[in-house]
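Hi all, long-time lurker, first post. I run a small reading group and we've been trying to get comfortable going from sequence to structure in the token notation. Rather than ask abstract questions, I figured I'd post a concrete chain and ask someone more experienced to write out its structure so we can walk through it together at our next meeting. Sequence below, copied exactly:
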Amino acid sequence: MRIDVLGTVQARRDDGSPIDLGGPRHREVLARLVAAEGRMVPTDTLIEDLWSQARTGSLGALRTFVAALRRAIEPERPPRTPPRVLITQGPGYALRLPRGATDVGRFQDALAKARHCHDGVVGLGEALALWRGPAYADLPEAAWAQRERARLQELRLQGVELRAGILLDSGEGAALVADLGTHVAEHPWREPAWGLLARALYRDGRQADALAALRRARTMLVEQLALDPSPDLQRLETDILTRSATLEPNRAPVPRPWSGTGARLGPRTTVDLARTLALVGGDALVSSRRDRLAAVQAAEQTGDVALTARVIGAYDVPAIWSRADDPRQSRAVVAAAGRALTALGPGGPTDLRARLLATVAVESRGDATRDTTLRDAHKAEALARGLNDPPLLAFALNGVFLQSFARPGLASQRDTIGAELVSLSTRHGLPTFAILGRLVRLQSASALGDLETAAAHAAAADDLAAAHESPLVTVLTAWFGARVTAARSTEPGGPSPAAAAAAYRAADDALATAGMPGLHHGLLPLALLGLRLLHNRPAPTDSQLDWGPYLPWATPLVLLAQGRVEDARAALAATPEPPRDHLQEALWCLTAHAAARLDEPEIAARAAVPLRDARAEHAGAASGMLTLGPVERYLTEAEACVAADR
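-- Answer (accepted) --
Happy to help. Here is the structure in token form:
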């Protein structure tokens, strides 16, 4: 089956015959699920999107539409067998189709390929030909469709310009003039388009027309927007006047917004797009990190320090986890930010310095080698407050939060940061940072054992995520749900440990494809170990478990469970101090527990010192994703071990 939405919504079977989707509401339900790109859309969200105001019978009507769509797209499915395409998932519905089964999927994949490989230009041309009109053209009033239509239209325009830039670099010119002329006429505010048109005219031997096009762009920008042309457009004009060799094909291109980077877009445009893709998760998140670093490197190559600073600071994607997903890239971004700060000097623009400092704070999370990062975070915060810039302040507060793990026991301080993020973001319309604030408060309440308050913040985060299509949020709140199940499994009449383990595994399955290896790696084994400790059971001995970064702290307990006492003692002696991150209390508790079991009072005393500050918290629960139970339990074990040695 194939579904097309780049125009009117329609579907066809594999043999090309059309599928009767039913009325407008049926097509809108299907289209809304296509827009979710395989992610589950809650029924509440579907109802809100289909009806401006929910009314009695909305849920029943939605179910009727879904049932009719299932009959239309899987007519041969036997009765009472589960659907394979339009499935029920949790509290909503999802489409299970390969990306190539939708024209929008094929288009976006072709665009991504062409950004990273010039050989993809043929496929990009074919993908652009898929457009039959505005996306979701027969759903003009739907607010969700308007948002998605605007997003896809921007990608289409970028695709047109990307293809033209690649073809110009390969030597074409004359064949592009007409299309680029139409493109510029329809979108006169896109400076890259004017540059491409001028290059095409020049390549066609029309130097005077190329200069005239650039002067029309200048006149329009100055007279209607009071803006000067960008330095790149000015440089292109000079290159055309002087017939610069840089305009010839098959040469290393001068960095410029429409053709200078590997992504074929300008550094600032690339990083803005990367920031948008980061919120989607999965492969898009992985690509966004790669594109971001390429944009930073391209900006540095221009020698324009202010541009470089803007590109580095533009990637203000909220970060909730204190371990970087790509430490190597984070170090490269921090190094570039440091160079930009040095070049700007203390007298540089305050907003640029604040963004660079906030970037350093965010990207240095979990890096124990930097002892000035907390100071950088507070300096960024102070500068942002002085500028009265809410988005910048939210970004700076994100840095302060990520640097707030200097020692165990600081959940209450982080809750204060989360509360300000929620308040600030709600007042100023910053939904992604409002989500961050809710998640910070969820983690803080979880650490303090206040599961009711944490659940309220989880629900608020889920509501915001549904309204603003942030699919990664439900991955995190699912882990919180598993953490609650684990805690309740110790209560009389509560869920079984097996149910808690199953909840952890289900949450881990979703996290595995979320594009967050810094969070995912080793988390499930640690959660399962915590569950066993809650029930006073030995550590798991499954050799297939990948403990990831938590291996040094788990090893003594695993060896003990295997009966290898002396090996466990040696492993405990080699256990390092935990990193300063979300799980430091949990790792100290593992050390304290192993020391008590092995009667190692010196190590127990070492673990007891940091744990005293976290006595009122729950081990591992600062993550909002798992729990080892109250810190007090492990601290008491350690102190008893020390006392027995006196």
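A couple of things your group might point at:
The chain is about 65% helix and 5% strand.
The chain has a mean pLDDT of 87.
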